[in-house]
Design a protein that fits this description.
The protein has a single domain, classed as Aminopeptidase (3-Layer(aba) Sandwich). The chain is built from five helices and eight strands, in the order ββαααβββαβαββ. The protein has an eight-stranded mixed β-sheet with strand order 1-2-3-4-5-6-8-7, with helices on both faces.
């Protein structure tokens, strides 16, 4: 399978997760503050979860001919987070949903803002997309800022839309149209 790499800038690039990334992924996703803003990540997050997730991603990559989950890497190749797609069938749909997470040691450095911007530009250039969407828990102000800085518009509030930790969670839905991409 072709090696995929998406340059974001001189310091950051995206590439598929590998087996070598498992210890870092397990460490970062076990952080309670990171976990609180993610919907479908178990807690505690164990090595078996990472192995299963990577196998699922490999199967999807084989089906679609490309990765849908990408490791965010710094200039040394160290994993600092992840970004990915919820994909159905790009030939039939004009939109995708993105999701992302950043390891806590890298918070507040503007990395995710650059990643989301670069990733969206890549998606618009390589796919026949008209729209990219993202769901954000109402309590996740940092993620709202990332999306707004990249031209996403808040399209609504989804009340009690998700269920996590035995409670219903409100979420904003954001959208970015191709012609709005910065």
């Amino acid at each position: 399978m072709k090696t995929h790499r998406i340059p974001i800038d001189d310091e950051i690039h995206l590439s598929p997760f590998t087996q070598h990334d498992i210890p870092s992924v397990v460490e970062f996703l076990n952080d309670g503050d990171v976990y609180e803003n993610l919907l479908s990540v178990p807690h505690p997050y164990e090595e078996k979860h990472a192995v299963e997730w990577m196998e699922k991603n490999r199967n999807i990559e084989e089906e679609h001919g490309r990765p849908i989950s990408w490791a965010i890497r710094n200039s040394r190749g160290t994993v600092t987070g992840g970004v990915g797609l919820k994909i159905r069938d790009l030939e039939m749909f004009h939109r995708v949903e993105i999701g992302y997470w950043m390891a806590k040691p890298f918070w507040g450095q503007g990395i995710m803002t650059r990643v989301v911007g670069g990733f969206c530009r890549y998606l618009f250039e390589t796919d026949r997309l008209r729209k990219i969407t993202a769901h954000v828990f109402r309590s996740n102000a940092a993620s709202v800022c990332v999306l707004r800085k990249n031209g996403f518009q808040r399209e609504g509030l989804l009340r009690q839309h998700f269920f996590k930790n035995d409670q219903y969670i409100d979420a904003y839905v954001f959208g970015l149209l191709k012609e709005e991409n910065v």
